[in-house]
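Read as amino acids, C-alpha cells; as here:

___
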Amino acid sequence: MKRLAIFTSLLSLTLMILFALTAKPAPAAQAPILDYDFVVVKAYYDDLEMVSNLTHAIEPWEINFDKQYIVLDVDAAEYWQLERAGFRLEIDEKLTTELNMPRAPLAGQGGGIPGYPCYRTVEETYDTAANIATNYPDLAEWVDVGDSWEKVTPGGLPGYDMMVLVLTNENIQRTKPKLFITSAIHAREYTTAELNTRFAEYLVTGYGSDADATWLLDNHEVHLMLHANPDGRKQAETGLLWRKNTNNNYCANTNNRGADLNRNFQFQWNCCGGSSNSQCSDTYHGASAASEPETQAVQNYLFANFQDLRDPPIGAAAPLTTTGIYIDIHSYSQLVLWPWGFGSIPTGNDTELVTLGRKMAYFNNYTPQQAIDLYVTDGTTDDFVYGELGIPAFTFELGTSFFQACGTFENTIFPDNLAALVYAAKAVREPYIAPAGPEALGVAVSTAAIAAGTPVTLTATLNDVRYNNQNGTEPTQNIMAGEYYIDVPPWITDTTPVALPMAPADGSFNTSIEGAIAVIDTTGLPDGRHTIFVRGQDANGVWGVFSAVLLYIIDPAVAPIIGGEVTAADSGLPLAATITANTIFQTTNNPGTGVYQMQVISDTYTITAVPTDPNYAPNTVTGIVAQNGQTIQQDFQLYPYCDVFFDDVESGVNGWTAQSPWAITTEAAHSPTHSWTDSPGSNYANNRNVAITSPVFDLTGYENVTLDYWQICDTEAGYDYCRVEISSDGGANWSEVINFDGPHTQWEEISLPLPALDGLANARIRFRFTSDGSITDDGWHVDDIRLRAAGPNCVDNVAPNAAFTSSSPDALGDATTFTNQSTGTDLTFTWDFGDGATSTDPNPSHTYGAAGSYTVTLTATNNLGSDVATGVVDILAAPQASFTSSSPTELGSSTVFTNTSTGDALSYLWDFGDGATSTAVNPSHTYATTDTFTVTLTVSNAVGGDTAVGLVQVIPPGGTSGYVIYLPVITAALPEE
C-alpha cells in the first residue's frame, strides 16, 4: 500500500455522521471498482461545514476554496462513503499515478530519494550538516538536542538523534537575534528539509563573498532543525504517504501508527476540534500534550534559546521590540500562515504578523493568511511558539505536491523561498517593526577593490511596496531617507556607529520607490574587507531591514593581479566580456584586444567571463589561487552557441511524438504559418494531461544547453498549466523545468537554461498541458522551438548532410554496391534497402532477391541531428537472346522473325545478313536475291547484352528442290578478355 493513512474505520464513522446530517436518503450502493487500491480524488463540497467535519480527523492534501474541493486519497469504500456524504468526486489521474508508482532510482541516479535525486535522504542530510560543521568550524555547529521515538525505544529500529545546525560567526561574540527553522515535521513533504539544507549551504558557502550571507552570520544566529521527524521521513522515502512519527503505541503495527507531531505541541493541545482522538487518524494528537520525544526536543530547544516575552492571555501582545523569528516549513498549498490556527480570536500582534507574512509571501508569491482561515488546527508549532514565547511564528506551505517534481523545486520553490528565508534572517532583529519599512535593493559600489583614499560611489534602490496583497492590501509610504554604515551597524555598542546619509538619485525623496546614492570616503580605512550596511526609512519613520555590499581596501603595490585575454574559440578573435571573480571583483576587458586585468585580495577564486555577444556562451574556471605579489594569467576561449535542434513547425512532425489532441495548426503561428497546439480548433477540454515529446538528443560534448521557443499560454490562472519538462534518460523519467498559467493572448519568447542536460547522451524535452475540471480557455500554442548549446562540438562538429551513389542498375543475382558521400562529423548511418533489409555499414553492398526498382534510404546522424537521402536502385534480369523465323521464304515474300529473347528493359538490333538492319521487336524483311543469309539478333539492357545467330534461306518462287532448311544457331555472348 502506498500511503500512510489507512483510516477506513475512522473515516467511515466521520462520513456516516456527516452523511446522516447532510445527505438525502439514497438506495444502497456498493463501493466502486477502482484501478488502484487507493486513488487521489478531488472531493467537491457544498459548504465549509462538510470540510470542517472531516479535517479534524484527516489532513487533506489540499483545500481549494475558490473551486470548493479538497484533495485526498481514498480506497473504494471511502470513495463510496464520500459520495454518500454529499461530495462530488473526481479522480485526479496524474496524482493517482504518482501515488501508485513504484519508487525506484532514476537511470544513473547516484544519491537522493529514489526517483527524486534533488532531495537528500535523512542520512545524506545529516552527512551534509556534519560536513558543514567540519568544513566551516568557525561558522557552524551540529548540535544533538534530543532523540526520535525509535531512538529512545529499545528493541526496534535504531532511530535518530534530533539535530540542529547552528550557523553564526563564532569569532564575533555578542548577543545576536535568532532565526529558528524546522522542516519535515510531516514526513511525506519532500521539499521542506531540502530547502532548509540549501539555505544552510547558501549561508556558509557565501560567507566572505556574498555580502548578505556575510553580515548575517557575523551579526545574527540561524538555527536549523533539518529533520523534525526523521523516523517518519525514512518511511516516506519508500514512497509511503507517511505523515506522523512512528510511535507504535498508537494504531500499533500498521502503516497508520504514530502521532501527528504538528498536533502534539503543548499550547492549546486538543483544545478546539483541530486534531483527532483516534490513534489511526492522520491528525492524532498523541496521548498527551508534548507526549512525543520529537515534540519535546523542539519545545525544549525553543525554551532554551528564546525568552518568553508574551503574557498568558490569548489576546496579549508581545513587545514590538521582540527579537527572533520561527518558521516551520511544510508542503503543500503555496501559503504563508501565522497564528492562530486553533480559533479566530485575534492575536495581540495581528498587524505586525500580517505585515511580515505579506512581506515573506512577496518572495514566494504564496497566499498570506491567518492559519484559521484554512481550517481549525490545535497543538501546532506556530501557535506554540507565538503563544508561549511571543516570537512571530509562521508556517510555509511549499509548492503543489508532497512528492514535488525536482524541476519545480529547483526552478521555482528553491529560489523563491530561499529569498524569503534570507529576508526573514535579515528581519529577526526587529521582526515586529522593520518589515513595515522599505527594503534596500541592488546595493552596489562602483569599484569593489581600491586603494585607501579613493572615493567610491554607493548606490541602492529603496523600495517600500514589496508585499503580497492577494489577501488584503498592505499600506505603503513614500521614502523619507536612506543611510549607510561602514563596518559598524547601529546595534554595535562597543564601537560608536556612524550613520552616513544617502541622497536621492533624482534630487528628492517623494515616491515609494527611490534610487539613493552616496560617495564613500575611504580615507583611513585599513586594508581588507569592509561591510557597507544600507537601509531606508519611509514617511512613517520606519527603518527597514539592512542589506549590504562588500568593499575591499588594497595596497596596489602588492595586491595580486588576475589578467588574461578573452577570445572566440571558433575564430580566435577578441571578444568583449565582463569578468567576475567570486562575485565580488569585476572588470570588463578591452574589446579590441580581449585583454583584461583586475586587482584582488589574496584568496582562491572562481572566475567567470560573460561575453557581450549573446551568440557566445560564458565560461567559468575554479580554484584560481592568487597571493600578494602574484600576477595570475587566466585566458578564456568562449565557445559559440549552435543549434542542436530547430523546428519552425513548417515541415511536419519532425521527430516529435504527439499525444492527441496535440496537433500542428494554422490557427496561430509566430512564424510563418504553423504552430503546435494542445487544442486545435477550440478551447481545451477539462481534466487534460497531454504532451508533445521531442526526439532524443545526444548532447555529449555540449554545455550551456538552452531551450528557446515562442508561446501563447492562455489558461485559467492557478488551475490549468503549460508545463515544460526535461528527461535525462530518454523519456523514462521527467522533471518539470517551469510552468505557466493565466490569461495570455500574445506571443512571448521563452528562454530556459537547461544545465541539467549538459553533456547527456539521451536528453529529451516535452511540452505537457494539464487542466482541471472547471473553466477552459484557448490553451497552448508553441512555435519556433530551438535547442541550442555551446562547446567544442559547435566548433569542430559539422551537421550531417546525407548523400550516396550506387552501382545500380545491377543484374539480378549480382551485389549492388553503395558509395557513401555524406558529409558531417562523427556520423552514424542507417540504410534501408527498400526490400526490408537494412545495414549500418558506411559503404554496404546488398544482393536483391528479385528484379525491380527499389527506393533506398540513407539516414546520417550525429549529435547535431539527422539528414536523409533517398535513391532508386534498379535490379534487372540479364538479357538472353533467341528468335525464330519463317525461313525458308520464297523470293519476293517477307521473312517474318519472332523474338523469343528474355530479360528486363531490352533493346534489339537485327542484322539480316544482307546489309539491312532493324530495331523492331519482331521485324519482317524481304530479301532481294535467293541465298542463305546469316541473321544476328543482339539484345541489350543496362546490365549487359546477348547475341543469337540464325540462318535464313531464300528460295526461288514455287520450288524448294536442292535446298536444305537451316534452323537458327544461338550463340551466347562471351565475356570480353
Q: What stands out?
A: The first strand starts at residue 39 and ends at 44.
